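REQUEST ID: PR-0412
SUBMITTED BY: lab tech R.K.
PRIORITY: routine
TASK: structure prediction, single protein chain
INPUT:
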Amino acid sequence: MFLGERGGAAEEGWLFGVRNGVVVLTGLVAMVTDWKYRKIPNLLTFPVIFLGLLLGGISGLSGFGSSAGGLLLGLAITFPLFAFNLIGAGDVKLVLCFGALKGLASPPTVSFVLWAFLYGALIGGVFSLCLFGLSAIRKTSDLLVQWGLTGPRPVGHGPSAALKAKIPYALPLTMGAFVALLLEFVAESPAPWLKT
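STATUS: complete
OUTPUT:
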């Protein structure tokens, strides 16, 4: 899918800008609410999904089909992870927002929602590795103190107990969407190495 195209027909520039703007705003709000409350509210996601389908419908039946296809691709990607309790329902709905807003590309392997999710999963994996590393450092430090090899750690030093908490996954998902948007802007595709 090239910049400003959906379903083979060129899309008006303003509509393309609105879609991208709503992706950015939705992601930012989801990041804040997920970080602060550990929830991505339905009050955010359901209206955005509806708006994505509505914006697709403005482009005609093929545009609506593209938005519905993007939504279904997002569901196909995330539902198995949700079923195994690897991501939350809010994370699924956030990905559905991205899918409905940006639609299904031709071929589907270059769809925004697919690559935004993959980039987000990669970023989330890096976050998890960093937290795991910090947790290992803390455990090692605790063992050294326990064995008497070092003095007690001063209060307030070292990794906090917050490291034990799960990552609010809206952060990496939104960052993944931002990477996909940047690649669309620079290279006209969220996966420029794939031939379309």
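NOTES: The chain has one domain: 5-187.
REVIEWED BY: pending
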